[in-house]
Specification:
Elements (H helix, E strand, L loop, with lengths): L17 H14 L4 H66 L1
Helix pairs in contact: 1-2
């Protein structure tokens, strides 16, 4: 998303389409403001807050995915170590049985 660092004092929207006017009516109804400009600004602020929340959640998701990858890798290492230990214990148990026979 490209950010503009220019300070805006006014915004003028010309040549609204029927779809634009319908959207403005929805915003006026949802926000409760009778003035279109105030209703639109309320919607803009809400959108900005939502965008920030989404961005923060995306960052958290990436961190959680990285943590999940690390945990899965550690789980694989633990399973492999368990298999090796089990193999050693079985081998030692068989060796003890053979030594007891002798």
């Amino acid at each position: 998303m490209q950010q503009s660092y220019r300070k805006r004092k006014n915004v003028i929207i010309r040549d609204l389409t029927d779809e634009d006017r319908a959207a403005i009516e929805v915003v006026i109804t949802d926000t409760g403001f009778r003035q279109a400009s105030k209703a639109i600004m309320r919607a803009v602020h809400s959108f900005a807050r939502s965008s920030l929340v989404i961005r923060d959640q995306a960052i958290k998701i990436k961190k959680l995915e990285a943590e999940k990858h690390m945990l899965l890798q550690n789980a694989r290492i633990i399973v492999e170590a368990y298999k090796r230990l089990e193999s050693l214990l079985i081998t030692n148990s068989e060796n003890e049985k053979q030594n007891n026979r002798i």
